Amino acid sequence: MRLVHRMTSEEKLRIVSLLRDGVRHPSSIARELGITRQGVDKHLGEMYRYGVVDKEWVLGEDRPRVEYALTPLGEFLYLGAEALEREYRERAREYALSEMRALDERLISGEITEEEHRKGIAAIRERFAWLQGL
């Protein structure tokens, strides 16, 4: 699980998203993401060591420059992270709705008052506010 955590930080996923559109120089990545070049270099170095990106030296006007591209492993990681997030959101929504239904049943059976029901529903909505539209 440590690898997934390291490779799916918000910044790394944003870098992968850019690299899905094609080869990039670290400076252009830094500009587009609004982070420092040093930060981009650090992330790309780690991603390179894990096989998420490849680097290639290209002859420039003054000197060689490095460009990075997403590898098939990187694409797999990105798609896997997207799928995991979708699945987690779906399961979290199902869990929250089932908790709300349980409160509804307790209200109908007279086990809790309308006020307790209202507070319980509000607490579930607050807890899962990140799902939006619950």
Q: Which helices and strands appear, and what pairs or packs with what?
A:
Blueprint (H helix, E strand, L loop, with lengths): L1 H6 L2 H10 L6 H8 L3 H13 L3 E7 L4 E7 L1 H37 L5 H14 L7
Antiparallel strand pairs: 1-2
Helix pairs in contact: 3-4, 5-6
Descriptive account of the structure:
- By secondary structure, the chain is mostly helical.
- The protein contains six helices and two strands.
- The chain folds into two domains: 2-70, Winged helix-like DNA-binding domain superfamily/Winged helix DNA-binding domain (Arc Repressor Mutant, subunit A, Orthogonal Bundle), CATH 1.10.10.10; 87-131.
- Helix content is 66%, strand content 10%.
- It has a two-stranded antiparallel sheet with strand order 1-2.
- Helix 3 crosses helix 4 and helix 5 packs antiparallel against helix 6.
- The two termini are 29 Å apart.
- The model has no long low-confidence stretch (mean pLDDT 93).
Unreliable runs: none
Instruction: Give the helix level as a range of percent.
Output: 55-70%
The tally of domains stands at: 2
Return the CATH architecture of the largest domain. Answer: Orthogonal Bundle
CATH superfamily of the largest domain: Winged helix-like DNA-binding domain superfamily/Winged helix DNA-binding domain
- Biggest sheet overview: 2 strands, antiparallel
